[in-house]
Design brief:
5-stranded antiparallel β-sheet; 1 helix; mainly beta; single chain; 208 residues; disordered C terminus
Length: 208
């Protein structure tokens, strides 16, 4: 099951150090300042979402990792969006369709990321809702193996390139509402979340 916020390690939003979209219709365009990240195949030109995640300040052994985003889902058909991961980095103000880390191919099986599909979630025409991706495996690898230097790239895109009426709007870290932003929710072995402590003092009334 997804990790509840009160059991998560640290601030889930703090692990996202960069995010942006890559838009095939504007191949050299950069959209770093936008408050949203559309992931779509609503036209012949695809849009993808990229997130750069840094977990260098996580201590202990990570046992579970969920990437959770509030989204606005639109379209007349159901679809599936998938998360991929890759080593490396990108700059929020520099990423474009042409230089995106996972390449420009539209064939899912040929994306040059370390793994194929990490996880997927179904997108229905539900408007506002949450999508959750279980990315425990890559997060554990990145945290435990020195090669990755405790950071990685996450790509989210629609799987069905042939379906043209799909739009899932993610909110970027530039969005002013903290409730809208994506977060990496981590369960860490041996780390006990803070508890709310309270006490009730009973006093007996006295009549003089």
């Amino acid at each position: 099951p997804p990790i509840p916020s009160y059991e998560a390690f640290g601030d889930p939003q703090s692990f996202i150090v960069a995010d942006a979209k890559a838009d095939k219709s504007v191949p050299d365009g950069n959209f770093a300042t936008y408050g949203f990240i559309p992931v779509s195949v609503s036209s012949p030109d695809e849009q993808r979402g990229y997130w750069l995640i840094n977990i260098s300040n996580v201590t202990g052994t990570i046992t579970q990792a969920n990437f959770v985003c509030k989204v606005d889902r639109q379209g007349s058909k159901s679809s599936t969006i998938e998360a991929y991961w890759s080593n490396g980095t990108f700059t929020e103000s520099g990423i474009t369709w042409n230089n995106q880390p996972c390449g420009t191919t539209e064939n899912s099986t040929e994306l040059p990321c370390n793994q194929t599909v990490v996880d997927f979630d179904h997108v229905l025409n539900e408007r506002i809702g949450n999508l959750t991706f279980d990315i425990s495996k890559p997060v554990k690898i990145v945290h435990e193996q020195l090669f990755y230097d405790k950071h990685f790239i996450l790509l989210i895109r629609h799987r069905e390139e042939s379906k043209i009426d799909q739009d899932t709007l993610f909110f970027s870290k530039e969005d002013p509402d903290p409730e809208d932003k994506c977060g990496l929710y981590l369960a860490v072995e041996g780390i006990i979340p803070p508890q709310i402590k309270f006490s009730i003092n009973n006093t007996s009334p006295r009549i003089n």
